[in-house]
Design a protein that fits this description.
The structure is a single chain. By secondary structure, the chain is mainly β. Residues about 1-30 have low confidence and may be disordered. Strands 1, 3, 4, 6, 9 and 11 form a 6-stranded antiparallel β-sheet that branches. It is globular, with a radius of gyration of 17 Å. The protein has 1 helix and 11 strands.
């Protein structure tokens, strides 16, 4: 009985975050290794969704390498994007370019400082790896991206531009 309850709980947790636990028809029990979530998947404090707080702008129709042709950006100091997930590692992707600004990344912390990340590049780079977490203990984690309203001295503006995340469930 204990084994069955553990299996049910495992399957329920996997379904909660959208991970596949295998295709029974194909006889495969191999779990999905990476879950990809686009910037447009939103909801307040829900697993596997972005929660944007502040004056974020959703950009559509940019088929230049952005996931699904979208990104979500802000230049407003203090705006926050939060992504809650169950997993062991997360990667943040964004758009780097001449108008890119700086942000702080906080993982499982309430800190508004965080690890500095830069969205500046001399030329536009779509779906650029902005941040990769260290290995994490399996569990619920929050990734927070805080707009600083600062930029590289060569930058033209302050955009923090999110394309999406991928995480290991």
């Amino acid at each position: 009985m204990r084994c069955i309850n553990w299996q049910i709980a495992s399957v329920a947790a996997a379904l909660l975050i959208g991970a596949t636990v295998g295709d029974a028809a194909a006889g495969s029990n191999t779990p999905k290794q990476v879950e990809v979530v686009d910037d447009t998947v939103t909801g307040k404090a829900l697993l596997g969704r972005f929660d944007y707080v502040g004056k974020w702008q959703h950009v559509h129709g940019k088929h230049d390498g952005r996931t699904n042709g979208t990104s979500t950006r802000s230049t407003h100091t203090g705006d926050v994007a939060i992504f809650r997930f169950i997993g062991t590692r997360i990667r943040l992707y964004g758009i780097r370019g001449p108008s890119g600004g700086r942000a702080g990344i906080a993982l499982d912390e309430a800190s508004t400082g965080g690890v500095p990340v830069d969205f500046y590049a001399p030329r536009i780079q779509t779906h650029a790896l902005i941040y990769e977490s260290p290995a994490l203990a399996r569990g619920v984690h929050d990734l927070s991206i805080v707009v600083w309203g600062t930029r590289d001295m060569h930058g033209h503006y302050y955009y923090v531009n999110i394309d999406g995340v991928e995480f290991e469930p």
